[in-house]
Structure formats: C-alpha cells, structure tokens
Amino acid sequence: MEKIKFNTLARHIYEEERKYPEATGELSDLLHDLSLAAKVISLEVNKAGLVDILGFTGNHNIHGEDVKKLDVFAHEMMIKAMDHGGHLCVMASEEDEDIIHIPPSFSIGKYVLLFDPLDGSSNIDANVSIGTIFSIYRRVSKGDGPGTIEDCIQQGIKQVAAGYIIYGSSTIFVYTAGKGVYGFTLDPSFGEFILSHPNIKTPKKSRIYSINEGNYLYWHPGLKKYIKWLQEEDKSTGRPYSSRYIGSMVADIHRNLLYGGIFMYPADSRNPNGKLRLMYECNPMSFIVEQAGGRSSNGKQRLLEVKPESLHQRTPIFIGSEEDVLLLEKFIKEYEPAAEK
Question: Could you read off the pLDDT of 191-238 as tens digits, one per residue?
C-alpha cells in the first residue's frame, strides 16, 4: 500500500499553486475560506442532536420544500465565510431565489461561487451523511463592478474548481481544480484537514448501482430495461449488480467515487426535467467525477456541456464509472419512445 505523506489541505493547496507561476493565489484563498466554513458547519452537524437546531423553520425554499434550521445555518455560514475575501463578484445558493451580491463595503473579485449549503438535508434527523457542494467559475461579465446572473449560469465545462464536504462518521473535504481529485479528512483533535485520499481515481466499471427504485413505474423504458439487465445473473459480465442507495446525493456519489458505481436520478413522467439542480449539484459533481476518470450524462448529452437557461434549472443525471454510464446511454437511445425519436 502506498504510504500517504502527512499533508494538510492548506499546505497541499500552497504546493499545487507553486507549480504554476501564473497562479495569483486567489483561488487558493477561496478554497481556504471554504474549508473554514466546512469546519464550522461540521461542528454544528455533529452536535445537531444535542441542541435545538434540528427540525423545520416553518418556511419553504423557492422549490416549495420545507427548510430545516440546519439548512439556514449552513447557508448563512457559507455567505459569511465567503463574502468578504475580495475574490468573489457574486454568489448563488440553492436556498436563495436570486443571486447573492457582495456587500458594497467589500472588494469585488473575479470569481463566482455557487453552492448547495446542505445536500441531503431531509436525512438530518436520521443521522445519515449529508454534505456541502460548491462550484467556482471565473466571471464573464465585463467591468469590475458587481457580478450578474450571466456569471452564475455558465456551462459546467467552464468551472475552475469544484468540491464537496461530506459530514459523516468523519468530515471529508474533496475537491478538484482541474488537475486531479483530492480528499482531506478533518482531524478534530487539532482542527485541520489532512490528506487522506490522494489523486482519487474511480474504477472504469463497477458492480454497484444507486437509484430510488420506488419510482420505477414512471421511468423511461430504456432505464427500466437497463435496471432489469443489471439485476440478471451473468457471471461473464459481473451481474447481478448490488443496489446501494442512501438517498443523499453527496453520500452516494462519494461512495461510488471511491469504489465504483453509477448514481442515477432520472427524469420521469412526473418530473420530465428531473429533480436535481444543474448548477448547484450536478455540474460540480460531474466535474469531480470526470476528473477522477468517470463520466456524467443527462442520458443523451455530457452534462458539463449543457447550456443552462436559468439559475435553478433541474436536470436528470447519470454519473459514475465510465463504462456503466456509457451502457446506460446506449439503453436510453435504443429504447427511445417513437414519439421522441
């Protein structure tokens, strides 16, 4: 087994920055600020069962979903940690209907931050792993004033960095800046993220699939055929596959990233555009998985190439081991209803 050298997140970011003379250090500062927010959110998540922070606020977010107290805390903590560094021109959150402007008293930078403050929050009360997902772009609007909606709805291929923090049995910070994927585990004894998963590579093929099979009745016929194919016994192709579904996107994809697998959250007859958000969940996760050697698709197109039309756009997603996603796309195409061809 390869020996992992002792390295903190801050040190790793600094060492990576030194490899590129053109680096300004601004992206490194952004990642450092994100790690500070992650530590505070992690602390609250870990003590959520002990203080009056669980439960619903009584309000709903823009998607009509109940907002939990910990959602609000994570959302506000991300803004407080990120708005004053002078590196951002605008932010956007899954929990906020509109873009989030940088206060006039703070400097305006050249980067854009999109985030899902607490993915999987419906599982909070059950103590299931949840997480924070983030995505960083360069601004495209002209001038040095406040950022615009144009800066926030860019294609996923234009991301300069993305990552997630998973709050589970340990807190792990996973990120990519387009040059590999790295994971850091928080050591609570001295409050530092330590390199634990260097240069993550996801297997090209797996024997795990993740999907909510309770929605089978409403699926595309090609997806139904694919799932039944995975469940058939055939030793030559490694079937049947094992079903592993947590119901928290960040937790399911983290497991599959390490062990291999395909995570699917499809469109269906009740949700023809899918349910997960392109900008806050699917684009950053797709960037990470592709950097680890995997693949991400909406069933017909590489997800990172989809041109977003709105801030809270939804999309189907099929993401994970490359060969598994390619095969899924083949089933979708082969069993396309005649009316859609």
Answer: 999 999 999 999 999 999 999 999 999 999 999 999 999 999 999 999
- What is the C-alpha separation between 80 and 263, in angstroms, rounded? 32
Distance (Å, whole) CA 204 – CA 320: 9
13 beta partners: none
Amino acid at 338: A
Contact 318, 299 (CB under 8 A): yes
CATH code matching the domain that covers 208-336, chosen among 3.30.457.10, 3.30.200.20, 3.40.190.80, 2.40.50.100? 3.40.190.80
pLDDT in tens, 114-143: 999 999 887 877 888 999 999 999 999 998
In sequence order, what are the beta bridge partners of 277?
A: 314
pTM of model > 0.85? yes
Average pLDDT, the chain: 92
Beta strands in 52-104 (DSSP E): 56-60, 66-68, 88-93, 100-101
Domain-wise residue ranges, the chain: 9-197, 208-336
Q: Extract long-range pairs of 234-242: CB within 8 Å, 24+ residues apart.
A: 238/205, 238/207, 239/207, 241/206, 241/207, 241/208, 241/209, 242/207, 242/208, 242/209
Is the fold of 9-197 the same as that of 208-336?
Answer: no
Taking a C-beta distance cutoff of 8 angstroms, is the pair 202, 214 a contact? no
Residue with tokens 């926030």: 152
Tell me if 220 sits within 8 A of 332, measured CB to CB: yes
* Burial class of residue 325 in the structure, from the number of CB atoms within 10 Å of its CB (0-12 exposed, 13-18 middle, 19+ buried): buried
- Count CB atoms within 10 A of the CB of residue 233: 7
Distance CA 234, CA 18 (A): 50
Token digits of residue 266: 């499809």
C-alpha dihedral (47, 48, 51, 56), degrees to nearest 10: 170
CB of 265 within 8 A of CB of 275?
Answer: yes
What is the rounded distance in angstroms from the CA atom of residue 90 to the CA atom of residue 145? 10
Task: Among 3.30.565.10, 3.30.540.10, 2.40.50.140, 3.90.650.10, name the CATH number for the domain at 9-197.
Answer: 3.30.540.10
